[in-house]
Amino acid sequence: MAAYLVLMQEIDDLDRYRSEYLPAVRPFLQKYGAEILVAGSNAELAEGEPPNSTVVIRFADTEAAWGFLNDPGYQPVKEIRLSTTSRTQMVVAPEFTPPG
User: Fold this and answer.
1) What angle do CA 38, 18, 87 make, to 5 degrees?
2) Cys-Cys crosslink for 84: which of 1, 13, 14, 97, Cβ 3.0 to 4.6 Å?
3) Closest to 30 measured CA to CA, from 84, 82, 67, 1
4) d(CA 100, CA 84)
5) Per-residue pLDDT of the chain (100 residues; tens, 9 = 90+)
6) Cα–Cα distance between 61 and 33 in angstroms, integer?
7) What is the dihedral of CA 27, 30, 36, 40, to 10 degrees?
8) DSSP letters of 4-50?
9) pTM tops 0.85
10) Torsion angle, CA of 82/88/91/96, rounded to 10 degrees?
11) Which among 40, 35, 31, 39 has a CA at the least distance from the CA of 74?
């Protein structure tokens, strides 16, 4: 069953995020079969005070999502993301299956 990584974050250093993080993360997303469904800062405010960036990534299952997040090679790349963003909220959620 598919799983979704949902990330909301405030991008504080857009130049470094684009030039360092994005090129470095792509091979890991490919490695784990990720499909980026939403990425950007053009979401419309519906409620609350969300950060300026929303990302939704589909993986084949939760194992693939956690594999990506915990990949030892990804950890230095993650540090780039953490150093260029703030107000981060992230969840890994399985695809909804209606009861019955």
Assistant:
1) 65
2) 13
3) 67
4) 44
5) 999 999 999 999 999 999 999 999 999 999 999 999 999 888 898 999 999 999 999 999 999 999 999 999 999 999 999 999 999 999 999 999 999 8
6) 10
7) 10
8) EEEEEEEES-HHHIIIIIHHHHHHHHHHTT-EEEEEES-PPP-SS--
9) yes
10) -130
11) 31
Q: In the numeric block, which tokens belong to residue 40?
A: 């950007």
Residues 6+ apart with CB under 8 A from 2: 58, 59, 60, 61, 94, 95
82 Cα distance to chain centroid: 12
Distance CA 96, CA 35 (A): 17
Q: Which residues pair with 63 in a beta bridge?
A: none
